[in-house]
Write a structure and sequence with these properties.
Blueprint: H1 12-18, H2 26-32, E1 52-57, H3 72-81, E2 86-88, E3 95-97, E4 112-116, H4 131-142, H5 160-166, E5 175-182, E6 185-190, H6 197-201, H7 211-217, E7 231-237, E8 241-246, E9 268-273, H8 277-285, E10 291-292, H9 299-304, E11 309-313, E12 318-324, H10 334-343, H11 346-353, E13 358-360, H12 383-392, E14 399-404, H13 416-428, E15 432-437, H14 441-448, E16 455-461, H15 468-475, H16 494-504, H17 509-526, E17 529-535, E18 538-542, E19 545-546, E20 562-563
Parallel strand pairs: 1-9, 1-10, 14-15, 14-16
Antiparallel strand pairs: 2-3, 4-6, 5-6, 7-8, 8-9, 10-18, 11-18, 12-16, 12-17, 13-17, 19-20
Helix pairs in contact: 2-8, 10-12, 16-17
Length: about 575
């Protein structure tokens, strides 16, 4: 397969070299940093001693309390340690039972849901799982006066997922009450119908934690997680390694693999943080890793040509974007935002940095999500139109701004720095002089979450397969909070808010379609983002790794993973 050619006829790696990204020696440094004496295979397939599954990634976790994080690197670890009431069928966003024994039917017109719980489930600390444990967790998340509504460390998201998915805290929450009917039955009563309620419940942030562990040390729980999942937490060398071990008493061992059960088949799981892409691929090729994500299009042929390695792709359910902070001048002027989107040669950028793994984006969520508006086309690359819009906005001489880029690869953006450099060059040609800024990953999320940027690169991998999880989370006014904002464009449109609220509170499919199509039109017209790409993220594995089921949410469970030979 030919490497993608893009910016001014250069390959992506050639472009980076011209941009000053020195990679010399990075591979050697990365491989050296992958030591630790742990093997990545061994044992008989299907049982017995199976060795270690070592997974390389581009960044460390921010925290391990699932309700207090929003980043994928945290949630993929939490996914191994915690279970929720519901889950998604492997490789899909179809619902399946988890700690609940069945998917509940809506009662009272969609305002009541009754969950029947599994018997014989225990948390990793021996605490029994029951209805009271479910109530404890939801009351901790929902009620700001709850003594355990805290924790998460200095970079905590402060229960942002709960607020985003359920409308806020306390009386603002769509969840009116959660009650234990008996030891094995929990009833949820909603203030109003919420169409994606069950899909929200299935998301990784709502994994059920041990009440005992929370009560004993809620402030440190983010570093010592305790759930009911297929793997138990062992240790976390922050910035480098997270170690987990097999939970031999996992409740899901006897469930069919197609429903998310089976295993765990490996004795240990190790997550290794290797920020440099080249070093990560070298570690995989050298046998220090069982698998790795954050691959670039240029890495795929290298792995495919290695007889000991293979490539697996996650189903596409994400978007990468350039957000403009509309609370700051001159981005509060729609003409300026449109000038930016027309100034950037997005097809060239996507070709150069995503290759065959990316599609130029048009709407604020990908076509794999329901009600995608097919009529919307990507913004046209038109530098002259951009200059005209700047003149109309009184900025014919251009202006200066900061463009923040993420320091690590993400599924929706394999090379933040390279993409930022390409945008910088395009914007300069129309008179917009941008200075590139980055931060350590946790700090980057924290500072963009309080609006420190003018423009920033970010993205989103969907959590549940519903458009509410994109538009409501990323572009509603309530998501543009003073801190921990998910809406980093700080875009506030009352008409859009009303549409999103109505779309989430009806179960009429035709009405939801009409509303979400209109919502996409509004976002396109107002241009708070320059959408970049919908990506199909590639992962690399040793051929000995079997049973890995890539999730469109980017947070697959490792319980089904086997290492043969």
């Amino acid at each position: 397969m030919e490497k993608a050619r893009g910016i001014r006829g250069l390959s992506r790696r050639e472009f980076l070299q011209l941009g000053g990204a020195g990679l010399a020696g990075a591979a050697l440094l990365g491989v050296a940093g992958c030591g630790g004496g742990e093997t990545i295979g061994g044992g008989q397939q299907g049982g017995g001693e199976e060795g270690v599954f070592t997974f390389g990634r581009g960044a460390d976790s921010v925290g391990l309390d699932p309700i207090n994080v929003t980043d994928g690197e945290s949630l993929i670890v939490c996914r191994q340690v915690f279970d929720g009431l519901l889950d998604f069928k492997p490789e899909t966003t179809d619902l399946v039972p988890a700690l609940a024994t069945e998917i509940p039917e809506p009662e009272e017109g969609g305002r009541v849901y009754t969950f029947r719980l599994r018997e014989g489930v225990t948390f990793h600390d021996g605490e029994p799982f029951n209805a009271e444990a479910v109530v404890f967790n939801f009351e901790r998340w929902k009620n700001t006066d709850n003594p355990y509504h805290k924790g998460g460390g200095s970079q905590s998201s402060n229960f942002a997922y709960y607020a985003g998915m359920f409308g806020g805290f306390d009386d603002d929450s769509v969840i009116e009450s959660v009650e234990a009917v008996d030891e094995r039955t929990v009833r949820f009563t909603l203030r109003e119908v919420q169409a994606p309620f069950l899909r929200n419940i299935a998301m990784s942030p709502f994994g059920i934690a041990s009440p005992r562990a929370i009560r004993e040390n809620v402030e440190q729980f983010w570093k010592n997680p305790v759930g009911t999942g297929p793997f138990k937490f062992v240790s976390w060398d922050q910035g480098a390694t997270v170690r987990l071990e097999k939970n031999p008493d996992w409740w899901g061992t006897d469930l069919p693999e197609e429903e998310g059960g089976g295993g765990p088949f490996v004795d240990r799981v190790v997550f290794r943080s290797i920020p440099d892409n080249t070093a990560r691929v070298a570690a995989l090729s050298g046998g220090q890793l069982s698998g790795a994500d954050g691959l670039t299009p240029d890495d795929v042929p290298t792995i495919e040509e290695d007889p000991d390695l293979k490539v697996i792709t996650r189903p596409p359910m994400n978007i990468g974007y350039l957000a403009m902070n509309v609370q700051k001048e001159p981005f509060n002027d729609r003409r300026v935002r449109l000038a930016v989107v027309h100034a950037i040669n997005m097809p060239e950028i996507v070709e150069a940095f995503f290759g065959d793994t990316g599609q130029v984006a048009s709407n604020a969520y990908p076509p794999t999500i329901p009600y995608f508006r097919e009529e919307t086309k990507p913004y046209e690359y038109d530098p002259e139109r951009a200059r005209q819009l700047l003149r109309e906005a009184g900025l014919g001489d251009g202006f200066e701004a900061e463009l923040w880029y993420m320091p690590i690869p993400r599924p929706y953006m394999p090379d933040g720095k390279g993409i930022a450099q390409a945008m910088q060059r395009d914007l300069r040609e129309v008179g917009i002089d941008v200075r590139l800024v980055t931060r350590e990953w946790g700090t980057y999320l924290e500072e963009t979450g309080r609006g420190a940027h003018d423009m920033c690169l970010l993205g989103w991998t969907g959590d549940n397969g519903d458009p509410d999880n994109f538009l409501n989370v990323l572009l509603s006014s309530k998501a543009a909070t003073e801190t921990d904002a998910q809406n980093v464009a700080y875009y506030k449109n009352p008409e859009l808010d009303r549409i999103l609220e109505r779309a989430a509170s009806t179960i009429d499919e035709d009405e939801r379609r009409r509303l979400y199509v209109r919502a996409q039109e509004i976002v396109y017209e107002d241009a708070p983002w320059a959408p970049i790409a919908y990506a199909e993220p590639p992962l690399g594995f040793q051929n000995s790794v079997q049973g890995y089921h890539p999730s469109p949410t980017g947070g697959e469970s490792f319980n089904s993973v086997r290492i043969s030979g």
